[in-house]
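Friendly challenge for the regulars: who can give me the structure tokens for this chain first? No prize, just bragging rights.
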Amino acid sequence: MISSAAAIGVNFNEYLLTNQRVYLVTCIISIISFIIYFSVYLLGGKLIAHSCCIHKNAFSAFESYPSFALIMSSSIMITLTCVFSWLGRWTYIFLFIVHAVIMISVYKPLSQFVCHTMFGTIERASLLTSQILSDVLMFVITTFAKDSKLQIFTFFAPYVFMIVSALVMNLIFKKIERKVLNDLCIDQTTSIDEKREKYDQFGLSENPEKLMKYLRIAFINRCPSFVDLSFLHYCIQASSSVKSNFACMQIISFFPSESRSLNILFSKCISTRHISFGDRFLIYQVNRIKTIRQSSVSLAANEKLIELKTMSKKCADIVKGFWISHNPSFGYLELINSKITMAESMWEEALRDYPNNPKFSDEFAHFLCEG
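First reply, four minutes later:
Bragging rights claimed.
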């Protein structure tokens, strides 16, 4: 997207200077390419960020806005710098100021730990800080520096800013993370009411953004209060904003045993008006998950379970007969192998068809132990 934006600015500027149509055609092609990249990145980022399938890596996040703002603002900055370069030095100064202000505005959502990993949060914060410092440097050089030799600093200064920003951001976000983990570090023997009183002391019920930050840090670090779902249940009850409701629903949808909590959140979310495209996609996914889980207790599933239980019992009887037999033959071993292999294939097929049915999981565990 950045390369397409640069091509738009350069070709448009060349067209204004030379009035040759080849630059205009190239500019139009670059605009089409930029629109395609923009659409794919925007829609893809929103869908991935609001997906029920959370795959933790350095680039995944709960919100796509910070990453999108970083790339989009840089792309527009490059295009406008090339297009309006003929207006003079004041144009660069204005663009540097606007770009720095936009970058500063991204700090707020980024401070909510929107990434799935701490590395991803620190990386984006470092990029953000280095871009702001680069804008300040360019503003100073463009405004006050008369010697063009000072512009050589613009080539290596961003790398220095990036390294320094990474170190500083690592200290800042690690400190915030340690504080949150200490707040969530509650003895597991503590009662539910005492845990809720403890969470209320942090002002989570009154501040939805702080609530989401605590929830995300607990998720990233697999905090014990998150693993036992006590803090997640508190977040569901204390959630008072549309954004926090969707955030809780995205995480709770992973646990089949929490169908009651999922239904409560789902009812709240579908009754909300004027929701975004990403939130609508999350509602679609959750509804699809609920449908699949409900179909797991259908009549066909019960019939399949009875069939598999019968076959498992036959396998267990055959194995038991082998051990009580005084003179078993090799043909008996071949029979055991064929029966167990057939049963295993049928169990694998059933677990693929009904992955969230606990009855199938329990019976399959029984088959592995007895068969």
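The mean pLDDT is 82. The two ends are 57 Å apart (CA to CA). Your move, everyone else.
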